[in-house]
């Protein structure tokens, strides 16, 4: 079973258990912290993937980092996954949990990268575009700034991407001009 599929099943189990126990918001906060920790530490991600490090050592490290910071339900899941030697799936559990949580809440996560910070009017236009594309009313928009785009934006919704950046349009124009120049030489 792929790590992504295993992570999806673990995330679903955690979501269902948290909902059953009425601790969904607490577990969501746990998964946000876990994801932020993974994102912030390349060494931690590599440790979880490393087959040479024994799972009991990985569990001790997980407990040292997260015990007292995560709820009992979340710590128990991390322990179960590690005891079953599936800690490489942990890298994907938080993102899968977030995706499933958003789906359950009828919310669509989207990421927009722009050359400059968005204005409130631009933000609302992007939110409206995501609503039209997905049919969902709520949008969780993550904003990033990348000056290399020159202008425009890149919008990622799930596995779809809309690239309306000046950088991409210039690249397309350059390719088109190069092809036309080549064609005229023939």
Q: Can you walk through the features of this model?
A:
The chain has eight helices and four strands, in the order ααααααβαβββα. A four-stranded mixed beta sheet has the order 2-1-3-4, sandwiched between helices. The model has no long low-confidence stretch (mean pLDDT 90). The chain has two domains: 3-103, Peroxidase, domain 1 (Orthogonal Bundle); 106-185, no CATH class. 64% of the residues lie in helices and 15% in strands. α2 packs across α6. With 186 residues, it is α+β, with helices and mostly antiparallel strands. The N and C termini lie far apart (52 Å).
Number of helices: 8
Number of domains: 2
**Helix/strand/pairing category:** alpha+beta
Could you state the order of secondary-structure elements as H and E? HHHHHHEHEEEH
Care to count the β-strands? 4
Instruction: Give the N-terminus to C-terminus distance in angstroms.
Output: 52 Å
The profile of the biggest β sheet is: 4 strands, mixed
Strand order of the largest sheet: 2-1-3-4
Mean pLDDT: 90
Uncertain segments are none
CATH topology (fold) name of the largest domain:
Peroxidase, domain 1
- State the helical fraction: 55-70%
CATH superfamily of the largest domain, called what?
Answer: N-terminal domain of the delta subunit of the F1F0-ATP synthase
Keywords:
single chain; 186 residues; alpha+beta; Peroxidase, domain 1; 4-stranded mixed sheet; 8 helices; 4 strands; 64% helix; globular
Q: Would you kindly provide a brief summary of this structure?
A:
The chain is 64% helix and 15% strand.
Set out the fold topology.
Blueprint: H1 3-21, H2 24-40, H3 42-49, H4 55-66, H5 72-83, H6 90-105, E1 107-114, H7 120-134, E2 138-145, E3 152-157, E4 160-165, H8 166-185
């Amino acid at each position: 079973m792929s790590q992504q599929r295993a992570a999806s099943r673990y995330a679903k189990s955690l979501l269902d258990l948290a909902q059953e126990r009425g601790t969904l918001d607490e577990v969501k906060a746990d998964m946000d912290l876990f994801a932020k920790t993974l994102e912030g530490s390349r060494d931690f991600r590599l440790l979880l993937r490393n087959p040479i490090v024994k799972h009991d050592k990985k569990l001790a490290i997980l407990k040292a980092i997260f015990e007292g910071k995560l709820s009992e339900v979340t710590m128990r899941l991390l322990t179960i996954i590690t005891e079953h030697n599936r800690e490489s799936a942990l890298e994907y559990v938080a993102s899968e949990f977030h995706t499933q949580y958003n789906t359950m809440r009828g919310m669509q996560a989207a990421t927009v990268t722009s050359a400059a910070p968005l204005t409130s009017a631009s933000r609302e236009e992007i939110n409206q575009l995501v609503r039209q594309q997905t049919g969902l009313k709520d949008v969780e928009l993550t904003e990033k700034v990348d000056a290399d785009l020159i202008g425009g934006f890149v919008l990622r919704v799930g596995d779809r991407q809309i690239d309306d950046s000046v950088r991409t349009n210039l690249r397309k124009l350059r390719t088109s001009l190069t092809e036309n120049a080549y064609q005229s030489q023939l």
